[in-house]
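Usage example:
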Amino acid sequence: MAFPTYAGRLEKTWYYVFRIICGLILFFLMAPLVILIPLSFNAEPYFTFTSGMLSLDPDAFSIRWYQDFINNPQWIHSIKNSFIIGFFSTILATSLGTLAAWALSRSYTPFRVAIMGILISPMIVPIIISAAGMFFFYSKVGLAQTYPGLILAHTALGIPFVVITVTATLIGFDESLIRASASLGANLVTTWRNVVIPLILPGVVSGGLFAFVTSFDEIVAVLFLSGFEQRTIPRQMWAGIREQISPTILAVATILVLFSIALLTTVELLRRRSERLRGLTPS
Amino acid sequence: MSDKTSEITTRDGTPLKLSLHRAERSKKIRSFLFLIPTLTFILITFIIPLTDMLFRSVHTPEVGALLHHTVKSLQAWDGAGLPDEPAYYALTQELKLLKKDKTLGKVALRLNYEKSGMRSLLSKTARKLKNIHEGPFKNKMIEIDKRWGEREPWAVIKRLGKGLTFTHYLATFDMKYDVDGNITSVPEEVRIHTKIWLNTLWVSLAVTALCVLLGYPVAYLLANLPIRISNLLMICVLLPFWTSILVRLTSWIVLLQKQGVINDILVWVGIISDENRIRMIYNMTGTFVAMTQVLLPFMILPLYSVMKTIDPSYMRAGRSLGANPVRAFWEIYVPQTVAGIGAGSLLVFILAIGYYITPALVGGATGQLISNFIALHMGKTLNWGLAGAMGTTLLAGVLAIYWLYNRLVGIENMKLG
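Running the assembly step on the lines above writes:
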């Protein structure tokens, strides 16, 4: 970037200082994610770099914490739990959320704003309050410490994200496309399959991913509602941090960082596809 | 009458206006039917549990149910002197009964939240009443414990016997009813909640301010770089956003603890000696650092989307009219970003004020916020009514800010990722 001709020396200096400041802030955001990766290969049970690691001695690195992770039945069990609960709550939240988003994106739907407020509320209410309320109520009806209980709780927490994401996609949806398709002789099923679904699918899938991540990362409701049997990955990490901190947790964390990179990439690709399909210029 | 002849009708003869109206209405009903499953689901799994908890904060059924006769005979008592013999009689009978049913603890615990010492008073009295079968019970009870000769225990029983009380809300702000039913502050040494509220408010405001301070430059840079580079740097903002909070907290512990990476580097460089390692975690500093890092993306994203729309020619125009860079920035650029600052700040503040996990894991003893106290009363002290009252108060605050957010930004414009 060339400087405008009127830029003084001070301004030019500031230009570089400013970039350094921004670099430091971005570093602050990324450092916690980056630092985990080398540390998880530590051969010693320490949470810091050993002198061997700093001199790049191959013996100072090992994959023992990854082996420990794979051979630990508790961790494996918690991964299974996270995926089971995540899968079912994503399916539920995506279908319910998409259904509602369809109606909420039509301007003629009655009580739109009020209903939107109610459906969004699980995202707004501080999680500790939601979790406490669910704990009392779910205990009363026998859902506490069960898989269905956790799935229902995570579905409720995931619905707002689906509603927001899918509504955003649907607001740009041109209803005359449906009429156009009908006038060309397509029946309702064909219209949905060939016109509506391809257009809204990217929005629905990214809404579903949001719901999945919400469930996958959720810890507070899990703390209140899960028994030992339903421990998820975050619950296991919570125990790891509070009770018996072992570097295995660094290996798990590294795997989760890679997992979130994959998720981020998927969502980004979907967003671009959706914008292209709807004829918006990519931002 | 000429109107009628010219009225447009559909093929079957109904006026067009009416038929359109009908079509419009069936469209409305159909779209509303789409909402019913989701709405029902949220109501049952979320809204009902929430209201259940809110109701718990004012509902006190134990005393009225288990000390039914005592409460009834206290109705006539005006609270000025001591109650009459019937009240003493009713209480002795009911205490004996509760002791036998093993339900005394429940009442005693509830009364104890209200006035500490009530639990031991009740169990002591119930124990000694075993040998007392004849009145006058008033004198004998005062003999057992002279506190029965004071008005306070009776006032507490009478107040809680009503079933609906605001005592938990008063406790939330370190206040209570005195013996005459007036609201007073609790003694200085047990005033903890007000401090936690102020602390939470202060931390949330400070974290919001920090996020503006750190988020503004980054958003500015991202909005003004060529799209290819800014997309690449955007990953640095979005990736933390998508990463599990527990991963990030684990990492902050690794970085900040006494034997952690940062302290090691500082010792190695020679800035501090090995004995004077800095305490950066398990206190307020830890809460601050981790919360700011977690919440910063929520500030950068709305700021970025506002800054993206600002035309750079305004700044150039300002410069050409003689403003120096600082003035051009402050008087032309910043005012155009106020909406973004507002949106980001409200969002960060709403999220910060309800934070639980971060303070719980890296806050130590001094870095705890209101949510942690709610969890404490839920899990440890088991004072669920107080937890409910604190939760309701917090919720009211959050909803007020959310209302403001909705007015200023609109929930539809909330950006995710």
